[in-house]
Specification:
Length: 56
């Protein structure tokens, strides 16, 4: 979930957030649990909120 605005943020942070499938504040996306996604989350961890879902 994107919880902080991208206004005034560097271009690479915009690209990472877009790569995660987030567009506007409060937009949410579900992604697979893999190292690549966690690397992207770590780059913008100050802008997003992460919640792990239980496996079904």
């Amino acid at each position: 979930k994107l919880v902080r605005s991208l206004i005034g943020r560097p271009k690479h942070q915009h690209e990472v957030v877009k790569g995660l499938g987030l567009r506007k504040i409060n937009s949410e996306a579900t992604r697979k649990d893999c190292p690549e996604i966690w690397g992207m989350i770590n780059k913008v961890r100050h802008l997003v909120e992460v919640e792990e879902l239980e496996k079904k």
